[in-house]
Amino acid sequence: MMFLLILFTSAFLFPSSNALDFCVGDLGAPQDPAGYSCKKAEAVTVKDFVFSGLSVAGNTSNVMKAAVTPAFSTQFPGINGLGVSLARLDLAVGGRTAMHTHPEGTEVLTIIQGTLCAGFISSTNKVYLTSLHEGDVMAFPQGLMHFQINVGKSPALAFASFSSTSPVIYFMDYAWFANDLPTQILQKTTFLDPDQIQRLKELLGGTN
């Protein structure tokens, strides 16, 4: 009995060399809620653990004057299964991220340059609102609606980290107005008048 206990303890403290240290995502395979299946070990290289996309500024010439450059598992296969990811946020003067949520992860935002007005709304409808400056860090809890607005006189840059390899970005305005949901339904559920709804649909690419 004592021998079995020692054997079990040793196996726990000193795991087999065959245990997986990581699971680099096979981007050619389907993705499920747990992530991508693992790339074959012989096909893994150091390049899988390096992503250079966040060094390039995003294109902010759009209606939001903002750009989000993700480094999720789809772009960065080395983080597959590790429970972390990153993104770059570029905001032109007056730029903003529409109200959005990340259903799969908490966000921590670090301000590199510029001044942002940022906040989130709790499940009890309490608003947490503040101004963020270079070097500030703010957490946005998983699943809660939040936003960022560049209120400074120069472009702003921030980097976000997430507690998920694929946190998902769900923009509320686009969910409402960038599709073919009938205006009559939106009128009843948002209390907006049809003209306002049509203007928003035209702005964001929706129909009907």
Automatic annotation (TrEMBL):
Signal peptide, first to last residue: 1-19
Cell compartment(s), UniProt: Secreted, Extracellular space, Apoplast
Record has Secreted as a keyword: yes
Domain Cupin type-1: 52-198
One Pfam family in the UniProt entry: Cupin_1
InterPro entries with a match to the protein in the record: Cupin_1, Germin, Germin_Mn-BS, RmlC-like_jellyroll, RmlC_Cupin_sf
UniProt superkingdom: Eukaryota
Main location: secreted
Keyword rRNA-binding: no
Keywords: Apoplast, Disulfide bond, Glycoprotein, Manganese, Metal-binding, Secreted, Signal
Protein family membership: Belongs to the germin family.
Protein name in UniProt: Germin-like protein
